[in-house]
Amino acid sequence: QVQLVESGGGLVQPGGSLTLACAVSTRDFGRYTYTWFRQGPGKGREFVAYIARTNESFYADSVKGRFAISRDSARHTAFLQMNSLKAEDTAVYYCAADRSDYKTSLDYDYWGQGTQVTVSS
Q1: Mean pLDDT rounded to a whole number for the chain
Q2: b or e along 60-91 (b: 16 or more beta carbons within 10 Å of the residue's beta carbon)?
Q3: Fewest CB within 10 A of the end CB: N or C in the chain?
Q4: Cβ–Cβ under 8 Å, residues 34 and 22
Q5: How far apart are CA 78 and CA 58, in angstroms?
Q6: Which of 35, 48, 33 shows the shortest CA–CA distance to 117?
Q7: pLDDT value at position 1?
Q8: If pLDDT is split at 50, 70 and 90, which confidence band does 75 have?
């Protein structure tokens, strides 16, 4: 079993930055791809970014150049650094884990509970 706990959400002004963390409880941290999804008000859940077991990363076009995903094996944590935030980034952000690489679809094996990010002045 893998448990994921997100943290770091909050209220930020447009143009600001936040870093989300996803603490992963598993002995096999290195065997999983970690992915961030988000669900905005009245919208479906959408892919944001993943970091594969090989450390290869991939981003949705809407966040490319503004967000950066990383993973820290020593701390068993995945991160999402979010810069130049916009109102449309407002959403609940979810961390997910799967043994498969390169998936942008929602069929992940493990999910966290989510953390709210609100971008507003």
Answers
A1: 97
A2: beebeeebbbebeeeeebbbbebeebeeebbb
A3: N
A4: yes
A5: 14
A6: 48
A7: 86
A8: very high
Q: How far apart are CA 86 and CA 33, in angstroms?
A: 27
Q: Alpha-carbon distance 85 to 50, whole Å?
A: 19
Answer for the pair 81, 19: CB distance below 8 angstroms, yes or no: yes
CB neighbours of residue 8 within 10 Å: 16
Residue 119 has a CB neighbour count (10 Å cut-off) of 19
pLDDT tier at 90, thresholds 50, 70, 90:
very high
* Residue 112 near residue 6 (C-beta atoms within 8 A): yes
Burial label for 113, CB within 10 Å (0-12, 13-18, 19+), is exposed
